[in-house]
Design brief:
Layout (H helix, E strand, L loop, with lengths): L1 H22 L18 E4 L2 E4 L8 E6 L4 H16 L4 E6 L4 H10 L5 E4 L4 H5 L7 E5 L5 E6 L7 H12 L2
Parallel strand pairs: 3-4, 4-5
Antiparallel strand pairs: 1-2, 3-6, 6-7
Length: 171
């Protein structure tokens, strides 16, 4: 009887510790840094350097993804469609792929024509606390984080289009 009480106490404490640990995870759509300045970064890929701050004055959809990520591939067609529907918004896709040749072949073979850079060091996504993909951040014209999307999205759904249109219309 004593052993089962100890086992039950251990399981209860373990469960509570797990819940507390999970409550600190930042995978929700409203991370703690909403309203703060988006962390700036610079990535050089294939001889081309992109700095997030160069897009100040424009709404930026910052998408962290990888070619080996099934949910990333699931959302890619609608992300490309959004890119063509809202050319006034910058979509910056940051891939964490390590194989440069496979990554560039994927972009070519799938006609990915949005702004995409490869950050195999994963320094940029770690600035945002992103370690699971895809995760996407909406950054307003003044460079502040406004929203976080977790997992694959239908980027041309009416609710997302309304939201992005309203953010783009703000001064």
């Amino acid at each position: 009887m004593n052993v089962s009480r100890h086992a039950l106490s251990f399981l209860t404490i373990s469960a509570l510790a797990s819940l507390l640990a999970l409550s600190g995870c930042n995978r929700g759509s409203l991370p703690r840094n909403i309203g703060q300045m988006a962390p700036d970064f610079s990535i050089t890929d294939n001889g081309h350097t992109v700095r997030l701050s160069q897009f100040r004055g424009q709404v930026v959809l910052l998408n962290f993804w990888a070619t080996w990520c099934p949910p990333c591939l699931e959302e890619l067609p609608s992300l490309l469609d959004l890119h063509h529907r809202m050319p006034q918004m910058v979509i910056l896709a940051v891939s964490v792929d390590t194989d440069a040749d496979a990554y560039h072949a994927f972009l070519r073979d799938n006609h990915v024509d949005l702004l995409d850079v490869r950050d195999p060091s994963q320094k940029s996504n770690h600035l945002y606390g992103t370690v699971q993909f895809p995760e996407t951040y909406v950054i307003d014209k003044s460079g502040h984080l406004r929203r976080k999307f977790v997992g694959a999205q239908d980027w041309i759904s009416p609710s997302i289009l309304r939201y992005l249109t309203s953010i783009s219309a703000q001064k």
